[in-house]
Amino acid sequence: MEKVYLCLGGNVGDTRQYLNQAISLISSRIGRVASQSAVYQSEPWGFNAEQMFLNQAVMAETELEPHAVLERCLQIESELGRTRSGNGYEPRTIDIDIIFFGNQIIDTPDLKVPHPLMHRRNFVLQPLCEIAPNLVHPVFGLTVKQLADECGDSLQTVRLAL
Q1: What is the CATH number of the domain that holds 142?
Q2: Domains: count for the chain
Q3: Cα 65 vs. chain centroid, distance in angstroms?
Q4: Could you say which of 14, 29, 72, 92 is catalytic?
Q5: Cα 100 from Cα 110, distance rounded (Å)
Q6: Which H or E element spans position 28?
Q7: 162 residues of the chain, pLDDT tens digit each
Q8: Which among 72, 82, 121, 153 is annotated as catalytic?
Q9: Does the annotation mark 29 as catalytic?
Q10: Active site residue 97
Q11: Are 31 and 60 in contact (CB under 8 A)?
Q12: Which of 72, 97, 121, 153 is catalytic?
């Protein structure tokens, strides 16, 4: 079993419902969801959008290989209405990013783990810090908490009440 850390987010439609559905599908298709953060509201990162994002981090225990997890994440996104125009960052019903896959470092054209931008994004680091503050980034050698403390992202990310 390998621990896979995922960041979920979206800003189109009933985002809380999409997060819940995604977690349920992750649990049934990727592996048991052993922990999940609260939901966080954040400003769009990398583009302008009218709607704020909701984000959440989860850790699942999986027997799948990394590329199989990626394929299942993409299938879940598609089933939950995610469409990709190929024009970069854009509003979406759901996005599922693989942040960490155990201690593995993966650099292929379609999959990069640890996620190459995670250390620059409060909307990833804050929820992840809630469930895995002492997890060490295998490239930087810093914990998630240290990365969160050093993150220069000025966009607001707020933990929402249940």
Answers
A1: 3.30.70.560
A2: 1
A3: 18
A4: 92
A5: 15
A6: helix 15-29
A7: 999 999 999 999 999 999 999 999 999 999 999 999 999 999 887 656 678 899 999 999 999 999 999 999 999 999 998 776 666 667 788 999 999 999 999 999 999 999 999 999 999 999 999 999 999 999 999 999 999 999 988 888 999 976
A8: 82
A9: no
A10: yes
A11: yes
A12: 97
